[in-house]
Write a structure and sequence with these properties.
By secondary structure, the chain is mostly helical. The chain contains 11 helices and 2 strands, in the order αααβααβαααααα. α1 crosses α3. The longest helix is centred in the first third of the chain and has 14 residues.
């Protein structure tokens, strides 16, 4: 279906299809066509993908050399890969590279990345953690060692391996114990997960 629409577009001679304007509808058709060619979802189309995709849409009884010529015309930078802007440029030869890029950014809105919000401990949570630290710190040295942590975690079903992983990750000064700051960071991150 998309190739029929593309053929119809390319056979028109009006200013909008061969000029400097790409409608959103036509853009989507070309995007679908490009995606159907891009079998490995890499964002580019190799010659092999193009041949396979071309054969899926067009009955081609001629030699592969004619497909190679079409591919080489589309692959403007001759890197052996067809990009989506190159496909658009082939069908819209009067559009400059800058105009093609503008259409791509206009119609392909970038997906907003979810920025992970770093959870901050409230003052109340910090005070509670200081109390928990004093409770866990059996020898009152201001540091929490794995044995002290294991004593309280055993009742929760948390084993020595898990505790060892926690210490490996959160004992930033690698002295074998967790300071109050490291203990707070441990809870802040574990509460987030």
């Amino acid at each position: 279906m998309a190739i029929k629409r593309v053929r119809r577009l390319s056979s028109h001679g009006d200013a909008k299809t061969t000029g400097r304007w790409i409608s959103k509808k036509d853009y989507k058709i070309f995007k679908q066509l490009f995606i159907s060619y891009d079998k490995d979802d890499s964002g580019t189309v190799t010659y092999q993908e193009f041949v396979k995709g071309f054969a899926d849409y067009v009955e081609c009884s001629g030699p592969l050399s004619s497909i190679a010529v079409i591919f080489s015309k589309i692959d403007e930078d001759n890197d052996g890969l067809m990009s989506f802007p190159e496909l658009l440029a082939a069908y819209y030869p009067y559009c400059s590279s800058r105009e093609i890029d503008q259409f791509v950014s206009k119609y392909d809105k970038p997906v907003k990345k979810q920025v992970a919000e770093v959870r901050q401990l409230t003052e109340e949570q910090e005070e509670e953690l200081e109390g928990v630290m004093r409770l866990f710190d059996q020898n009152a040295d201001g540091e929490l060692d794995p044995k002290e942590m294991a004593y309280y975690c055993a009742n929760l079903g948390i084993g020595d391996e898990t505790i060892a992983e926690w210490f490996k990750e959160y004992d930033t000064d690698q002295n074998g114990t967790l300071s109050l700051a490291e203990f707070k960071e441990f809870f802040r991150r574990e509460w987030d997960s």
